[in-house]
Write a structure and sequence with these properties.
Layout lengths: L8 H26 L9 H16 L3 H16 L5 H20 L9 H13 L33 H19 L6 H16 L7 H14 L7 H19 L11 H12 L5 H9 L9 H12 L3 H27 L5 H20 L3 H20 L5 H24 L17 H34 L8 H16 L3 H20 L5 H23 L7 H12 L9
Helix pairs in contact: 1-2, 1-4, 2-3, 3-4, 3-5, 4-5, 4-16, 6-7, 6-9, 7-8, 7-20, 8-10, 8-11, 13-14, 13-16, 14-15, 15-16, 17-18, 17-20, 18-19, 19-20, 19-21, 20-21
Length: 565
Protein backbone atom coordinates (compact mmCIF):
# COMPACT_ATOMS: atom_id res chain seq x y z
CA UNK A 1 0.00 0.00 0.00
CA UNK A 2 1.42 3.43 -0.88
CA UNK A 3 2.45 5.69 2.00
CA UNK A 4 0.15 8.40 3.28
CA UNK A 5 1.15 11.82 1.92
CA UNK A 6 4.87 11.58 2.57
CA UNK A 7 6.53 14.85 3.48
CA UNK A 8 10.07 16.07 2.88
CA UNK A 9 11.06 17.81 6.15
CA UNK A 10 14.09 19.45 4.52
CA UNK A 11 11.95 21.10 1.83
CA UNK A 12 9.41 22.29 4.38
CA UNK A 13 12.07 23.70 6.70
CA UNK A 14 13.63 25.53 3.76
CA UNK A 15 10.45 27.40 2.83
CA UNK A 16 8.75 27.57 6.24
CA UNK A 17 10.06 31.03 7.18
CA UNK A 18 8.72 32.47 3.92
CA UNK A 19 5.40 30.67 4.36
CA UNK A 20 5.07 31.94 7.91
CA UNK A 21 5.78 35.49 6.74
CA UNK A 22 3.18 35.32 3.97
CA UNK A 23 0.49 33.92 6.24
CA UNK A 24 1.30 36.41 9.01
CA UNK A 25 1.15 39.36 6.61
CA UNK A 26 -2.09 38.08 5.07
CA UNK A 27 -3.65 37.86 8.52
CA UNK A 28 -2.43 41.36 9.38
CA UNK A 29 -4.10 42.70 6.23
CA UNK A 30 -7.28 40.89 7.18
CA UNK A 31 -7.20 42.21 10.75
CA UNK A 32 -6.82 45.75 9.46
CA UNK A 33 -9.77 45.29 7.12
CA UNK A 34 -12.23 44.10 9.76
CA UNK A 35 -11.55 47.17 11.88
CA UNK A 36 -12.41 49.52 9.05
CA UNK A 37 -15.41 50.00 6.82
CA UNK A 38 -15.54 46.64 4.96
CA UNK A 39 -16.39 48.37 1.70
CA UNK A 40 -13.51 50.81 1.96
CA UNK A 41 -10.65 48.36 2.39
CA UNK A 42 -9.04 46.37 -0.38
CA UNK A 43 -8.39 42.73 0.51
CA UNK A 44 -6.42 42.23 -2.70
CA UNK A 45 -3.00 42.22 -0.96
CA UNK A 46 -4.28 39.66 1.56
CA UNK A 47 -5.50 37.35 -1.20
CA UNK A 48 -2.29 37.87 -3.17
CA UNK A 49 -0.17 36.73 -0.21
CA UNK A 50 -2.39 33.69 0.26
CA UNK A 51 -2.01 32.88 -3.46
CA UNK A 52 1.77 33.03 -3.06
CA UNK A 53 1.57 30.74 -0.02
CA UNK A 54 -0.64 28.36 -2.01
CA UNK A 55 1.99 28.19 -4.76
CA UNK A 56 4.79 27.43 -2.30
CA UNK A 57 2.71 24.75 -0.56
CA UNK A 58 1.91 23.06 -3.86
CA UNK A 59 5.57 23.21 -4.86
CA UNK A 60 6.51 21.13 -1.80
CA UNK A 61 3.44 18.91 -2.44
CA UNK A 62 1.64 19.83 0.77
CA UNK A 63 -1.76 19.61 -0.88
CA UNK A 64 -3.90 19.72 2.26
CA UNK A 65 -2.51 23.04 3.50
CA UNK A 66 -2.55 24.38 -0.07
CA UNK A 67 -6.26 23.60 -0.38
CA UNK A 68 -7.03 25.29 2.94
CA UNK A 69 -5.12 28.36 1.74
CA UNK A 70 -7.01 28.46 -1.58
CA UNK A 71 -10.41 28.05 0.04
CA UNK A 72 -9.51 30.81 2.50
CA UNK A 73 -8.54 33.17 -0.31
CA UNK A 74 -11.73 32.45 -2.24
CA UNK A 75 -13.90 33.03 0.82
CA UNK A 76 -12.22 36.39 1.39
CA UNK A 77 -13.13 37.28 -2.18
CA UNK A 78 -16.71 36.01 -2.07
CA UNK A 79 -18.20 37.03 1.28
CA UNK A 80 -18.57 40.37 3.09
CA UNK A 81 -16.58 40.82 6.28
CA UNK A 82 -19.70 41.56 8.31
CA UNK A 83 -20.81 37.93 8.03
CA UNK A 84 -20.27 36.50 11.57
CA UNK A 85 -19.98 32.87 10.44
CA UNK A 86 -17.44 33.82 7.79
CA UNK A 87 -15.45 35.83 10.33
CA UNK A 88 -15.22 32.85 12.69
CA UNK A 89 -14.27 30.43 9.91
CA UNK A 90 -11.59 32.79 8.56
CA UNK A 91 -10.17 33.37 12.04
CA UNK A 92 -9.98 29.63 12.67
CA UNK A 93 -8.39 28.97 9.27
CA UNK A 94 -5.61 31.54 9.78
CA UNK A 95 -4.90 30.20 13.26
CA UNK A 96 -4.83 26.54 12.21
CA UNK A 97 -2.81 27.20 9.05
CA UNK A 98 -0.04 28.91 11.00
CA UNK A 99 -0.01 26.19 13.66
CA UNK A 100 0.02 23.40 11.05
CA UNK A 101 3.34 24.52 9.60
CA UNK A 102 4.92 24.35 13.06
CA UNK A 103 3.20 21.02 13.79
CA UNK A 104 4.75 19.42 10.68
CA UNK A 105 8.30 20.37 11.68
CA UNK A 106 10.46 17.23 11.68
CA UNK A 107 7.60 14.94 10.59
CA UNK A 108 7.66 12.70 7.54
CA UNK A 109 3.90 12.50 7.01
CA UNK A 110 1.29 15.18 6.57
CA UNK A 111 -1.94 14.94 8.56
CA UNK A 112 -4.72 16.22 6.28
CA UNK A 113 -7.37 14.77 8.59
CA UNK A 114 -6.57 17.61 11.01
CA UNK A 115 -7.39 20.24 8.38
CA UNK A 116 -10.47 18.65 6.84
CA UNK A 117 -12.94 20.18 9.30
CA UNK A 118 -11.63 23.68 8.60
CA UNK A 119 -11.52 23.15 4.82
CA UNK A 120 -15.14 22.00 4.86
CA UNK A 121 -16.20 24.96 7.00
CA UNK A 122 -14.87 27.31 4.31
CA UNK A 123 -16.39 25.23 1.51
CA UNK A 124 -19.77 25.29 3.21
CA UNK A 125 -19.74 29.09 3.30
CA UNK A 126 -18.86 29.07 -0.40
CA UNK A 127 -21.82 26.81 -1.18
CA UNK A 128 -19.63 23.83 -2.09
CA UNK A 129 -20.03 20.19 -1.14
CA UNK A 130 -18.01 18.99 1.84
CA UNK A 131 -15.01 16.77 1.13
CA UNK A 132 -15.22 13.21 2.42
CA UNK A 133 -12.83 11.85 5.02
CA UNK A 134 -11.10 9.75 2.37
CA UNK A 135 -10.37 12.75 0.12
CA UNK A 136 -6.65 12.80 0.96
CA UNK A 137 -6.32 9.05 1.44
CA UNK A 138 -4.11 6.94 -0.82
CA UNK A 139 -6.04 3.81 0.06
CA UNK A 140 -5.87 1.20 -2.71
CA UNK A 141 -9.32 -0.16 -3.62
CA UNK A 142 -9.12 -3.60 -5.20
CA UNK A 143 -12.00 -3.86 -7.72
CA UNK A 144 -12.56 -7.62 -7.40
CA UNK A 145 -13.09 -7.78 -3.62
CA UNK A 146 -16.76 -8.14 -2.69
CA UNK A 147 -19.06 -9.25 0.10
CA UNK A 148 -18.81 -13.02 0.77
CA UNK A 149 -22.02 -14.97 0.05
CA UNK A 150 -24.29 -15.61 3.07
CA UNK A 151 -24.93 -19.05 4.51
CA UNK A 152 -27.51 -21.15 2.70
CA UNK A 153 -31.13 -21.13 3.86
CA UNK A 154 -31.60 -17.38 4.28
CA UNK A 155 -34.93 -15.77 5.10
CA UNK A 156 -37.44 -14.69 2.47
CA UNK A 157 -37.30 -11.08 1.30
CA UNK A 158 -40.70 -9.43 1.83
CA UNK A 159 -41.78 -5.81 1.72
CA UNK A 160 -43.00 -6.05 5.32
CA UNK A 161 -39.57 -7.24 6.47
CA UNK A 162 -37.80 -4.51 4.51
CA UNK A 163 -40.05 -1.80 5.95
CA UNK A 164 -39.43 -3.12 9.45
CA UNK A 165 -35.66 -3.10 8.98
CA UNK A 166 -35.78 0.36 7.44
CA UNK A 167 -37.68 1.74 10.42
CA UNK A 168 -35.22 0.14 12.84
CA UNK A 169 -32.41 1.86 10.95
CA UNK A 170 -34.24 5.21 10.85
CA UNK A 171 -34.93 5.19 14.60
CA UNK A 172 -31.27 4.49 15.32
CA UNK A 173 -30.12 7.13 12.82
CA UNK A 174 -32.32 9.80 14.40
CA UNK A 175 -30.74 9.02 17.77
CA UNK A 176 -27.24 9.36 16.32
CA UNK A 177 -28.07 12.64 14.55
CA UNK A 178 -29.51 14.06 17.78
CA UNK A 179 -26.30 13.16 19.60
CA UNK A 180 -27.84 10.59 21.93
CA UNK A 181 -25.02 8.64 23.49
CA UNK A 182 -26.76 5.34 24.29
CA UNK A 183 -25.22 2.65 22.03
CA UNK A 184 -28.62 1.05 21.43
CA UNK A 185 -29.18 3.48 18.53
CA UNK A 186 -26.05 2.23 16.79
CA UNK A 187 -26.99 -1.39 17.50
CA UNK A 188 -30.40 -0.85 15.89
CA UNK A 189 -28.66 0.39 12.76
CA UNK A 190 -26.02 -2.34 12.88
CA UNK A 191 -28.59 -5.12 13.13
CA UNK A 192 -30.68 -3.70 10.27
CA UNK A 193 -27.58 -3.38 8.06
CA UNK A 194 -26.45 -6.93 8.85
CA UNK A 195 -29.86 -8.30 7.87
CA UNK A 196 -29.79 -6.29 4.64
CA UNK A 197 -26.32 -7.65 3.90
CA UNK A 198 -27.69 -11.20 4.05
CA UNK A 199 -30.89 -10.35 2.17
CA UNK A 200 -28.82 -8.83 -0.65
CA UNK A 201 -27.29 -12.24 -1.31
CA UNK A 202 -23.59 -11.38 -1.13
CA UNK A 203 -21.33 -10.37 -3.98
CA UNK A 204 -21.09 -6.89 -5.48
CA UNK A 205 -24.81 -6.21 -4.90
CA UNK A 206 -24.28 -6.46 -1.13
CA UNK A 207 -21.07 -4.41 -0.91
CA UNK A 208 -22.74 -1.29 0.49
CA UNK A 209 -24.34 -3.16 3.39
CA UNK A 210 -21.19 -5.21 3.97
CA UNK A 211 -18.97 -2.15 4.34
CA UNK A 212 -21.64 -0.28 6.31
CA UNK A 213 -21.79 -3.06 8.89
CA UNK A 214 -18.03 -2.67 9.34
CA UNK A 215 -18.39 1.07 9.94
CA UNK A 216 -21.25 0.55 12.40
CA UNK A 217 -19.30 -2.16 14.21
CA UNK A 218 -16.44 0.32 14.64
CA UNK A 219 -18.85 2.90 16.07
CA UNK A 220 -20.49 0.38 18.43
CA UNK A 221 -17.04 -0.65 19.70
CA UNK A 222 -16.07 2.99 20.25
CA UNK A 223 -13.30 2.97 17.63
CA UNK A 224 -15.10 5.48 15.40
CA UNK A 225 -16.57 8.65 16.85
CA UNK A 226 -19.83 10.12 15.66
CA UNK A 227 -19.61 13.47 13.87
CA UNK A 228 -21.80 15.37 11.37
CA UNK A 229 -19.88 14.10 8.32
CA UNK A 230 -20.30 10.49 9.40
CA UNK A 231 -23.97 11.05 10.23
CA UNK A 232 -24.46 12.27 6.65
CA UNK A 233 -22.71 9.17 5.35
CA UNK A 234 -24.90 6.90 7.49
CA UNK A 235 -27.97 8.75 6.20
CA UNK A 236 -27.26 7.49 2.69
CA UNK A 237 -28.39 4.03 3.79
CA UNK A 238 -31.98 5.24 3.93
CA UNK A 239 -31.87 5.88 0.17
CA UNK A 240 -30.49 2.38 -0.30
CA UNK A 241 -33.44 0.99 1.69
CA UNK A 242 -35.84 3.00 -0.47
CA UNK A 243 -34.30 1.76 -3.73
CA UNK A 244 -34.27 -1.83 -2.47
CA UNK A 245 -38.00 -1.55 -1.71
CA UNK A 246 -39.08 0.33 -4.81
CA UNK A 247 -36.83 -1.31 -7.43
CA UNK A 248 -36.84 -5.07 -6.80
CA UNK A 249 -35.76 -5.80 -10.38
CA UNK A 250 -32.43 -4.00 -9.89
CA UNK A 251 -31.44 -5.58 -6.56
CA UNK A 252 -29.11 -8.16 -8.05
CA UNK A 253 -27.45 -5.66 -10.39
CA UNK A 254 -26.94 -2.85 -7.83
CA UNK A 255 -23.34 -1.63 -7.64
CA UNK A 256 -21.54 0.60 -5.18
CA UNK A 257 -19.91 3.74 -6.59
CA UNK A 258 -16.16 4.15 -6.19
CA UNK A 259 -16.41 7.34 -4.09
CA UNK A 260 -18.84 5.85 -1.58
CA UNK A 261 -16.86 2.60 -1.48
CA UNK A 262 -13.72 4.59 -0.71
CA UNK A 263 -15.40 6.54 2.11
CA UNK A 264 -16.78 3.41 3.78
CA UNK A 265 -13.57 1.41 3.34
CA UNK A 266 -11.50 4.31 4.70
CA UNK A 267 -13.56 4.34 7.91
CA UNK A 268 -13.20 0.57 8.27
CA UNK A 269 -9.45 1.00 7.77
CA UNK A 270 -9.33 3.31 10.81
CA UNK A 271 -10.51 0.49 13.09
CA UNK A 272 -8.30 -2.09 14.74
CA UNK A 273 -10.70 -4.76 16.04
CA UNK A 274 -14.07 -6.40 15.35
CA UNK A 275 -15.21 -9.56 13.52
CA UNK A 276 -16.66 -7.83 10.45
CA UNK A 277 -13.86 -5.24 10.48
CA UNK A 278 -11.19 -7.96 10.34
CA UNK A 279 -13.08 -9.75 7.56
CA UNK A 280 -13.24 -6.61 5.40
CA UNK A 281 -9.65 -5.60 6.06
CA UNK A 282 -8.41 -9.10 5.24
CA UNK A 283 -10.38 -9.49 2.00
CA UNK A 284 -9.58 -5.94 0.84
CA UNK A 285 -5.94 -6.17 2.01
CA UNK A 286 -6.21 -3.07 4.18
CA UNK A 287 -3.54 -2.77 6.88
CA UNK A 288 -3.15 0.35 9.06
CA UNK A 289 -4.12 2.54 6.12
CA UNK A 290 -5.64 5.34 8.16
CA UNK A 291 -4.97 6.83 11.61
CA UNK A 292 -7.48 5.76 14.28
CA UNK A 293 -9.72 8.39 15.82
CA UNK A 294 -7.98 8.30 19.20
CA UNK A 295 -4.64 9.07 17.56
CA UNK A 296 -6.20 12.05 15.77
CA UNK A 297 -7.49 13.38 19.09
CA UNK A 298 -3.92 13.38 20.42
CA UNK A 299 -2.51 14.84 17.20
CA UNK A 300 -5.11 17.62 17.28
CA UNK A 301 -3.90 18.57 20.76
CA UNK A 302 -0.34 18.77 19.44
CA UNK A 303 -1.49 20.86 16.50
CA UNK A 304 -3.24 23.40 18.70
CA UNK A 305 -0.23 23.58 20.99
CA UNK A 306 -2.23 24.15 24.17
CA UNK A 307 -4.53 21.78 26.00
CA UNK A 308 -8.25 22.13 25.49
CA UNK A 309 -8.82 22.77 29.20
CA UNK A 310 -6.22 25.54 29.25
CA UNK A 311 -7.68 27.22 26.18
CA UNK A 312 -11.20 26.80 27.57
CA UNK A 313 -10.21 28.58 30.78
CA UNK A 314 -8.42 31.32 28.86
CA UNK A 315 -11.41 31.96 26.60
CA UNK A 316 -13.82 32.20 29.52
CA UNK A 317 -11.57 34.55 31.49
CA UNK A 318 -10.77 36.77 28.53
CA UNK A 319 -14.40 37.04 27.50
CA UNK A 320 -15.15 38.29 31.00
CA UNK A 321 -12.43 40.91 30.56
CA UNK A 322 -13.91 41.85 27.18
CA UNK A 323 -17.30 42.53 28.74
CA UNK A 324 -15.73 44.72 31.43
CA UNK A 325 -13.79 46.70 28.83
CA UNK A 326 -16.94 47.33 26.79
CA UNK A 327 -18.78 48.54 29.90
CA UNK A 328 -15.95 50.94 30.72
CA UNK A 329 -15.81 52.19 27.13
CA UNK A 330 -19.55 52.87 27.21
CA UNK A 331 -19.07 54.93 30.38
CA UNK A 332 -16.20 56.81 28.77
CA UNK A 333 -18.22 57.50 25.60
CA UNK A 334 -21.19 58.80 27.58
CA UNK A 335 -19.04 61.14 29.67
CA UNK A 336 -18.24 64.64 28.46
CA UNK A 337 -14.58 63.85 29.05
CA UNK A 338 -13.28 60.31 29.73
CA UNK A 339 -11.90 60.10 33.25
CA UNK A 340 -8.23 59.08 33.55
CA UNK A 341 -9.18 56.36 36.06
CA UNK A 342 -11.53 54.77 33.53
CA UNK A 343 -8.89 54.86 30.78
CA UNK A 344 -6.29 53.44 33.16
CA UNK A 345 -8.62 50.51 33.94
CA UNK A 346 -9.19 49.85 30.24
CA UNK A 347 -5.43 50.04 29.60
CA UNK A 348 -4.63 47.57 32.38
CA UNK A 349 -7.25 45.06 31.23
CA UNK A 350 -6.23 45.31 27.58
CA UNK A 351 -2.59 44.68 28.52
CA UNK A 352 -3.60 41.53 30.39
CA UNK A 353 -5.73 40.32 27.48
CA UNK A 354 -2.98 41.00 24.92
CA UNK A 355 -0.46 39.04 26.99
CA UNK A 356 -2.85 36.08 27.28
CA UNK A 357 -3.53 36.14 23.54
CA UNK A 358 0.19 35.96 22.79
CA UNK A 359 0.57 33.04 25.16
CA UNK A 360 -2.33 31.28 23.42
CA UNK A 361 -0.77 31.76 19.99
CA UNK A 362 -3.02 34.60 18.75
CA UNK A 363 -0.24 37.08 18.07
CA UNK A 364 -2.11 38.97 15.38
CA UNK A 365 -5.02 39.68 17.72
CA UNK A 366 -2.56 40.74 20.41
CA UNK A 367 -0.92 43.15 17.94
CA UNK A 368 -4.35 44.62 17.20
CA UNK A 369 -4.80 45.41 20.89
CA UNK A 370 -1.26 46.80 21.12
CA UNK A 371 -2.18 49.52 18.62
CA UNK A 372 -5.08 50.58 20.82
CA UNK A 373 -2.89 50.39 23.92
CA UNK A 374 -0.51 52.88 22.32
CA UNK A 375 -3.38 55.36 21.85
CA UNK A 376 -4.55 55.01 25.44
CA UNK A 377 -0.99 55.13 26.78
CA UNK A 378 -0.28 58.32 24.83
CA UNK A 379 -3.45 59.92 26.18
CA UNK A 380 -2.63 58.96 29.77
CA UNK A 381 1.04 59.97 29.52
CA UNK A 382 0.47 63.27 27.75
CA UNK A 383 -2.68 64.30 29.56
CA UNK A 384 -4.55 64.58 26.24
CA UNK A 385 -8.14 63.59 25.58
CA UNK A 386 -9.26 60.63 23.50
CA UNK A 387 -11.66 61.62 20.75
CA UNK A 388 -14.96 59.78 20.31
CA UNK A 389 -13.61 58.20 17.11
CA UNK A 390 -10.69 56.80 19.14
CA UNK A 391 -13.13 55.19 21.57
CA UNK A 392 -15.07 53.68 18.66
CA UNK A 393 -11.81 52.30 17.23
CA UNK A 394 -10.95 50.68 20.57
CA UNK A 395 -14.45 49.20 20.82
CA UNK A 396 -14.16 47.77 17.29
CA UNK A 397 -10.88 46.11 18.22
CA UNK A 398 -12.46 44.59 21.32
CA UNK A 399 -15.36 43.20 19.28
CA UNK A 400 -12.90 41.72 16.78
CA UNK A 401 -10.93 40.00 19.55
CA UNK A 402 -14.16 38.58 20.96
CA UNK A 403 -14.86 37.05 17.54
CA UNK A 404 -11.33 35.65 17.47
CA UNK A 405 -11.85 34.02 20.86
CA UNK A 406 -15.07 32.41 19.63
CA UNK A 407 -13.21 31.07 16.62
CA UNK A 408 -10.42 29.74 18.83
CA UNK A 409 -12.89 27.95 21.06
CA UNK A 410 -14.51 26.31 18.06
CA UNK A 411 -11.13 25.36 16.60
CA UNK A 412 -10.33 23.56 19.82
CA UNK A 413 -13.50 21.52 19.47
CA UNK A 414 -15.04 22.92 22.61
CA UNK A 415 -18.48 23.59 21.21
CA UNK A 416 -19.92 20.79 23.30
CA UNK A 417 -23.48 19.83 22.50
CA UNK A 418 -25.90 20.47 25.31
CA UNK A 419 -28.76 18.02 25.66
CA UNK A 420 -31.90 19.11 27.54
CA UNK A 421 -32.55 16.90 30.54
CA UNK A 422 -36.30 16.49 30.53
CA UNK A 423 -36.72 15.26 34.05
CA UNK A 424 -39.82 17.34 34.97
CA UNK A 425 -40.25 19.46 38.05
CA UNK A 426 -37.91 18.82 40.93
CA UNK A 427 -40.59 18.18 43.55
CA UNK A 428 -39.61 17.28 47.10
CA UNK A 429 -35.89 16.72 46.76
CA UNK A 430 -35.22 13.58 48.77
CA UNK A 431 -38.39 11.75 47.72
CA UNK A 432 -37.85 12.47 44.03
CA UNK A 433 -34.22 11.45 44.21
CA UNK A 434 -35.22 8.13 45.77
CA UNK A 435 -37.86 7.55 43.09
CA UNK A 436 -35.42 8.38 40.31
CA UNK A 437 -32.84 6.02 41.77
CA UNK A 438 -35.39 3.20 42.03
CA UNK A 439 -36.56 3.80 38.46
CA UNK A 440 -32.97 3.83 37.18
CA UNK A 441 -32.15 0.58 39.01
CA UNK A 442 -35.28 -1.09 37.64
CA UNK A 443 -34.48 -0.09 34.06
CA UNK A 444 -30.84 -1.15 34.35
CA UNK A 445 -31.89 -4.56 35.66
CA UNK A 446 -34.33 -4.92 32.75
CA UNK A 447 -31.63 -4.03 30.22
CA UNK A 448 -29.26 -6.57 31.80
CA UNK A 449 -32.01 -9.17 31.47
CA UNK A 450 -32.41 -8.36 27.76
CA UNK A 451 -28.63 -8.71 27.29
CA UNK A 452 -28.80 -12.13 28.96
CA UNK A 453 -31.56 -13.24 26.57
CA UNK A 454 -29.51 -12.00 23.59
CA UNK A 455 -26.64 -14.23 24.71
CA UNK A 456 -29.05 -17.17 24.98
CA UNK A 457 -30.27 -16.55 21.43
CA UNK A 458 -26.65 -16.55 20.18
CA UNK A 459 -26.05 -19.85 22.00
CA UNK A 460 -29.27 -21.21 20.47
CA UNK A 461 -27.97 -20.47 16.96
CA UNK A 462 -24.59 -22.06 17.78
CA UNK A 463 -26.21 -25.23 19.22
CA UNK A 464 -27.89 -26.16 15.94
CA UNK A 465 -31.11 -24.58 17.24
CA UNK A 466 -31.68 -26.65 20.37
CA UNK A 467 -34.72 -24.94 21.93
CA UNK A 468 -33.78 -26.01 25.47
CA UNK A 469 -30.86 -23.57 25.34
CA UNK A 470 -33.48 -20.80 25.44
CA UNK A 471 -35.11 -22.05 28.67
CA UNK A 472 -33.34 -19.55 31.00
CA UNK A 473 -34.60 -16.68 28.82
CA UNK A 474 -38.21 -17.16 29.91
CA UNK A 475 -37.59 -15.96 33.47
CA UNK A 476 -35.47 -13.05 32.22
CA UNK A 477 -38.21 -11.88 29.85
CA UNK A 478 -40.81 -12.08 32.60
CA UNK A 479 -38.52 -9.88 34.71
CA UNK A 480 -38.49 -7.35 31.86
CA UNK A 481 -42.26 -7.61 31.61
CA UNK A 482 -42.63 -6.95 35.35
CA UNK A 483 -40.37 -3.90 35.23
CA UNK A 484 -42.34 -2.39 32.35
CA UNK A 485 -45.64 -3.03 34.12
CA UNK A 486 -44.37 -1.29 37.26
CA UNK A 487 -43.32 1.67 35.09
CA UNK A 488 -46.80 1.67 33.50
CA UNK A 489 -45.84 0.72 29.95
CA UNK A 490 -48.35 -2.10 29.33
CA UNK A 491 -47.83 -2.48 25.57
CA UNK A 492 -44.08 -2.93 25.93
CA UNK A 493 -44.69 -5.31 28.85
CA UNK A 494 -47.00 -7.33 26.60
CA UNK A 495 -44.25 -7.66 23.99
CA UNK A 496 -41.86 -9.05 26.61
CA UNK A 497 -44.49 -11.46 27.93
CA UNK A 498 -45.49 -12.74 24.50
CA UNK A 499 -41.84 -13.22 23.54
CA UNK A 500 -41.39 -15.39 26.63
CA UNK A 501 -44.51 -17.37 25.72
CA UNK A 502 -43.19 -17.94 22.18
CA UNK A 503 -40.04 -19.48 23.64
CA UNK A 504 -42.09 -21.71 25.96
CA UNK A 505 -44.20 -22.88 23.02
CA UNK A 506 -41.10 -23.72 20.97
CA UNK A 507 -39.69 -25.77 23.86
CA UNK A 508 -42.96 -27.61 24.53
CA UNK A 509 -44.29 -28.13 21.02
CA UNK A 510 -41.38 -27.46 18.70
CA UNK A 511 -40.98 -24.36 16.56
CA UNK A 512 -43.17 -23.93 13.50
CA UNK A 513 -40.42 -21.89 11.81
CA UNK A 514 -36.91 -22.85 10.75
CA UNK A 515 -34.42 -22.36 13.57
CA UNK A 516 -32.61 -19.51 11.84
CA UNK A 517 -35.83 -17.61 11.11
CA UNK A 518 -36.98 -18.07 14.73
CA UNK A 519 -33.65 -16.70 16.01
CA UNK A 520 -33.92 -13.67 13.70
CA UNK A 521 -37.44 -12.86 14.92
CA UNK A 522 -36.35 -13.18 18.54
CA UNK A 523 -33.45 -10.84 17.84
CA UNK A 524 -35.88 -8.34 16.26
CA UNK A 525 -38.08 -8.42 19.36
CA UNK A 526 -35.11 -8.04 21.69
CA UNK A 527 -33.70 -5.00 19.85
CA UNK A 528 -37.15 -3.37 20.08
CA UNK A 529 -37.26 -4.00 23.84
CA UNK A 530 -33.67 -2.81 24.26
CA UNK A 531 -34.44 0.41 22.39
CA UNK A 532 -37.60 1.00 24.44
CA UNK A 533 -35.81 0.50 27.77
CA UNK A 534 -32.90 2.72 26.69
CA UNK A 535 -35.30 5.52 25.75
CA UNK A 536 -36.98 5.32 29.17
CA UNK A 537 -33.62 5.26 30.96
CA UNK A 538 -32.50 8.37 29.07
CA UNK A 539 -35.78 10.23 29.75
CA UNK A 540 -36.75 10.16 26.07
CA UNK A 541 -40.10 9.39 24.47
CA UNK A 542 -39.86 5.97 22.76
CA UNK A 543 -41.02 5.75 19.16
CA UNK A 544 -44.43 3.99 19.37
CA UNK A 545 -43.97 2.48 15.92
CA UNK A 546 -41.24 0.26 17.34
CA UNK A 547 -43.90 -1.59 19.35
CA UNK A 548 -46.00 -1.93 16.22
CA UNK A 549 -43.03 -3.53 14.47
CA UNK A 550 -42.60 -5.85 17.46
CA UNK A 551 -46.29 -6.79 17.13
CA UNK A 552 -45.63 -7.75 13.48
CA UNK A 553 -42.79 -10.02 14.56
CA UNK A 554 -45.03 -11.61 17.19
CA UNK A 555 -47.68 -12.16 14.52
CA UNK A 556 -45.13 -14.04 12.42
CA UNK A 557 -44.44 -16.21 15.47
CA UNK A 558 -48.16 -16.95 15.77
CA UNK A 559 -48.67 -14.88 18.90
CA UNK A 560 -51.69 -12.52 19.15
CA UNK A 561 -50.76 -8.90 18.38
CA UNK A 562 -50.94 -6.41 21.27
CA UNK A 563 -51.94 -9.13 23.68
CA UNK A 564 -52.62 -8.49 27.33
CA UNK A 565 -50.50 -10.78 29.41
Amino acid sequence: MPPRLLLNPASLNLVRPELARLIRQAQTEFDSAVQQDPGAHDLGPCREMLAQADGVLRMIELGDAALLTRELGELLKALPLDNPRAMEAITRAFFVLARYLDYLGGRRQAAPELLLEHINALRGLLGRDALGEASFSQLVILPDRHCPPPAAGGEEVTDALLRRLRHHYQVGLIGVIKGRSDPVHLRLMQRAAERMCRLSGGGAAADFWWLLTGVLEGMVLGQLRSNPARARLLSRADRQFRDFLQKPDTRASARLGDDLRGELLYLVAKCRDGKRIREIQSLCEVVDAAPPDQQLVEERKLLMGTSVDSIDSMVRLLKGDMHRIKDELEQAASATEPRPATLAGVHETLERVAAALREGGLRSSADTLDKQLQKIGAALGGGTELQRQDLVSIADAVVYVETTLSGLARAQGMARGLRAQQQGASGPGVAREALDEARHTLLQSAREAVESVKRDVSSYAESNFDAMVLAPSVAQLHAVRGALQILEHPRAAAVAGQTAQSILDSIANGCTLAGGAFAELLADLLICLEYYLAALENAEDPDPLMLKLADESLGTLGRPSRANC
